[in-house]
From TrEMBL, chains A, B:
InterPro entries: PurM-like_C_dom (IPR010918), PurM-like_C_sf (IPR036676), PurM-like_N (IPR016188), PurM-like_N_sf (IPR036921), ThiL-like (IPR006283). Residues 25-137 form the PurM-like N-terminal domain. It catalyses: thiamine phosphate + ATP = thiamine diphosphate + ADP. Mg(2+) 1 binds at residues 44, 121. It is an enzyme of class 2 (transferase). Residues 151-301 form the PurM-like C-terminal domain. Reaction mechanism of ThiL seems to utilize a direct, inline transfer of the gamma-phosphate of ATP to TMP rather than a phosphorylated enzyme intermediate. ATP binds at residues 103, 120-121, 146, 212. Keywords: ATP-binding, Kinase, Magnesium, Metal-binding, Nucleotide-binding, Thiamine biosynthesis, Transferase. Mg(2+) 5 binds at residue 213. GO terms for molecular function: ATP binding; magnesium ion binding; thiamine-phosphate kinase activity. This is Thiamine-monophosphate kinase. It comes from Oceanobacillus arenosus. Mg(2+) 2 binds at residues 44, 73.
Length: 322, 322
């Protein structure tokens, strides 16, 4: 199969977004403006050997997870997914049927959110690399920023933290584990929190971020962007019931610095917290209060742990460090 | 410099697009809908060793040319450039100052078209790879497609063909050449035909494509998408004055199959041809009639050369062939 044949094979049969005017097949895709809406866009890249490996993921998961990470960014912006474009660098070592499985993984998730694949590029190279651009829409004035936290806010997080890294640990360390499929699924097929994020639309103010690098990194991002202190309480960080089977030191590492859980981290006014809980229940989303926004140090995160309060540093992934 | 420092260093000081609500710095960028406009988007990827090499390009050119190729796609859609997002995969072998030069090359071109850099990702990997997504806008109903050619149309092309490959030849083959800087510039810093493409706005119908893989490939794309025959005349294919210094066989190869000239190829009604010439003059663009759209074989391109008419096959680049 050559480039043209491959592109034909991944083309969607039919498009789902009514605002799409022209999909794949020309020099660019065309979609219309929509009154009262803004568009949200971001790009994310996944490199074999850096972000994923064939030893812990099947090709289907590689695609699923890469698109999930991008959709999670849209969730963190309060945006509804609409379109995606995929550039793929293909090495000799990947078979056509594996490449098709990558696209099948993306398509499965895309279908869930009515997203259309509207562009792409396929080139050859030394390692498999996926670059995905997503485009979503938000009601005008309702895109959600990290810079909107205020002193007194409740800090909350969806789901449970550290599960993705626990899954990776299970996949790379032989042993007996309880509930291993749960953790492996959380690693391979994370669920972006779109319904919950869209449910928050009615709130007048909310700071929102998604947990891709670890909650330590993302709380720091909100604290810095909003120029506030965030005070977390270790006892309130939500973990799944079988998470306690892992050594304490690993639990701590994965919860705060593990990343890739693709949960949402937010801050809202005290009086909006009940509404957030109601939206969480309605969208079948676990949500936990994990701390407070306070004054004091600008751009710091403090963690209360073992009856001490210490500074929680960023220390998340930083792929460019070398 | 780490990822965060590098991203800070490439961030724009100020944004130029009035519709931009939020640029780099959150999970995604936000821009507003615009009444009466459609958005056009595409993604393109450039791999070191496949699409460029340090031996023939300085880092500045790598960035300039990669963005030019993307902007050329917007031109071919009749769209005005607005935003771009850049994902970069960085190997150990590239210095920070070279990476900065890549971004400087993109910025130089972006500034010319008032484009804002609104997103990106930086990751490490084995070879340098740039993935660029561009977003532009077109008046509603005025995006230009390959599928809009009709029997009787004049086929035209901007500029001169084959220059980019001639420049690459000069860079990779020692020798005495006339006007070598001209050809090298055409290879390293191609000029997308935005002013001319936007000037065509008033035309009710036009088929448009940009020459990235070679005019043989792109005429075939229009012929297939529009289900027509395109008949070209070799004598009318525009070449620059010093192009004749190269062996005849190379001239032929570069003109038809060389690609990367980023000129525009179009077809318009006979009665609109004068208007196209007027717009070309106004935007300081050379434009040449090179053939006709005819009936007959659907999706074929015929070339009249040396008093014979033969079929011109696609045979352009096809990066996935292996």
């Amino acid at each position: 199969m050559d480039e043209f044949g491959f592109i034909d094979s991944i083309k969607q049969e039919a498009y789902m977004q009514p605002s799409l005017i022209r999909g794949i097949g020309d020099d660019g895709a065309v979609f219309s403006s929509e009154a009262g809406k803004s568009f949200v866009t971001c790009i994310d890249t996944f490199v074999e050997g850096v972000h994923f490996s064939k030893e812990t993921m099947q090709p289907f998961h590689v695609g699923y997870r890469a698109l999930a990470a991008n959709i999670s960014d849209l969730a963190a912006m309060g945006a509804e997914p609409a379109f995606y474009l995929v550039s793929i660098v293909i090495p000799q070592s990947w078979e056509m049927k594996e490449l098709s499985a990558i696209y099948a993984g993306m398509k499965e998730l895309a279908k869930k959110y009515q997203m259309d694949l509207i562009g792409g590029d396929t080139v050859s190279g030394e390692s498999l690399i996926l670059s995905i651009t997503v485009i979503g829409r938000a009601d005008k004035g309702k895109a959600r920023y990290r810079s909107d936290a205020s002193v007194g806010d409740v800090v909350f997080v969806t789901g449970t933290l550290g599960d993705s890294q626990a899954g990776l640990h299970i996949l790379t360390n032989q042993g007996e584990y309880r509930n291993s499929n749960y953790f492996i699924d959380r690693h391979r097929m994370p669920e972006p929190r779109i319904p919950f994020a869209l449910g928050l639309k009615g709130l007048s103010r909310i700071a929102l971020n998604d947990i891709s690098d670890g909650v330590a990194s993302e709380t720091n991002e909100i604290a810095e962007a909003s120029n506030v202190t965030i005070a977390l309480n270790d006892e309130e960080i939500p973990i799944s019931s079988d998470f306690v089977q892992f050594p304490k030191q690993l639990q701590h590492q994965w919860k705060y610095f593990g990343g890739e859980d693709f949960e949402l981290l937010g801050t809202v006014r005290e009086q909006d917290w009940e509404e957030v809980k109601r939206i969480a229940e309605k969208t079948n989303t676990r949500v936990s209060k994990i701390g407070r926004v306070t004054g004091g140090y600008k751009g710091h995160v403090l963690l209360k742990i073992d009856n001490k309060e210490e500074r929680l540093e960023k220390k998340g992934y930083n792929h460019l460090s070398r």
